[in-house]
Amino acid sequence: MSLMQYKQVRLVIFDMDGVIIDSEPFWQEVEKQVFAKLGFDVTSLVEGGKTKGMRLDEVIRDWQGILGFDQGISEAIYSEIIQGIISRVESDGVMIPYVKEAIDFFIKKGIPLSLASGSNYEIIDAVMDKFDLRDRFSVIYSAEDEIYGKPHPGIFLTTATLMEVSPNNTVVIEDSLNGVIAAKAASMRVIAIPPDSEQGDVRFSLADCKITSLSEIPQAASMLGFEQ
């Protein structure tokens, strides 16, 4: 494969939480509330950033080992958190600035878009409906359908396969370190948009390009060799 073939971008995959919607505060708030009912203070766990981008069932399983709650209630915890997130999305969800401009940028270049999220389909549907974005993505895919969630690369590899595009010709837009790791493990290029509190985290140097806002997508695309 020539360098020119490698550089040709044939698919852009958007993450959702933290890229399209500022949902991290919802996750932290709902998780703390649900676990507080069980007598657990999970503040240090939810604010550490280690679970960002991960699938909820995997997070709950990890916390079960740490906190020691009965594994039999994991399903109830999962359902309550999901419904809490959906409620917050519907009532208070705000789209991150320049999302539509970034989407339009790629569409004008004729580059197909997909969405790949660690959230389950119920939450994805709530966000897509809230912002009327469903028809902008050729494929909408959840790690719910994978054996493992991020930082495993499966979610991105499957999305590219569904689009019949090589990972080498795919660019992922991610805000979480787990997502960046997953995309790089899938042999894809990554535009990272860490939140302000994580802009100084040197681990994001793993990404091919790091920006502070979706308004910088044209500059990032130029750096990655998008055809003009």
Short overview:
By secondary structure, the chain is an alpha/beta fold. The chain is built from ten helices and six strands.
List the defining traits of the structure above.
6 strands, 10 helices, 6-stranded parallel sheet, disordered N terminus, Rossmann fold, DNA polymerase, domain 1, 228 residues, globular, alpha/beta
Secondary structure topology:
Layout: H1 3-7, E1 11-14, H2 24-36, H3 43-46, H4 56-67, H5 74-92, H6 99-108, E2 113-117, H7 121-131, E3 139-142, H8 154-162, E4 170-174, H9 177-185, E5 189-192, E6 209-210, H10 217-223
Parallel strand pairs: 1-2, 1-4, 2-3, 4-5, 5-6
Helix pairs in contact: 2-5, 4-5, 5-7
Q: Any overview of this molecule?
A:
This protein is of the alpha/beta class. It folds into two domains: 3-22 and 94-223, HAD superfamily/HAD-like (Rossmann fold); 24-92, Orthogonal Bundle (DNA polymerase, domain 1). It is built from ten helices and six strands; from the N terminus they run H-E-H-H-H-H-H-E-H-E-H-E-H-E-E-H. A six-stranded parallel β-sheet has the order 3-2-1-4-5-6, with helices on both faces. Strand 4, helix 9 (177-185) and strand 5 form a beta-alpha-beta unit. The longest helix has 19 residues, at 74-92. Mean pLDDT is 92; it is low at 1-6.
Straight-line distance between termini: 21 Å
Low-confidence stretches: 1-6
Molecular shape: globular
What Rg do the Cα atoms give?
17 Å
What profile does the largest beta sheet have?
6 strands, parallel
The amount of helix comes to: 40-55%
Would you count the extended β strands for me? 6
- Beta-strand portion reads 5-15%
CATH topology tier name of the largest domain: Rossmann fold
- Seen as an oligomer or otherwise, the chain set is single chain
Identify the CATH homologous superfamily of the largest domain.
Answer: HAD superfamily/HAD-like
What topology, given as strand order, has the largest sheet?
3-2-1-4-5-6
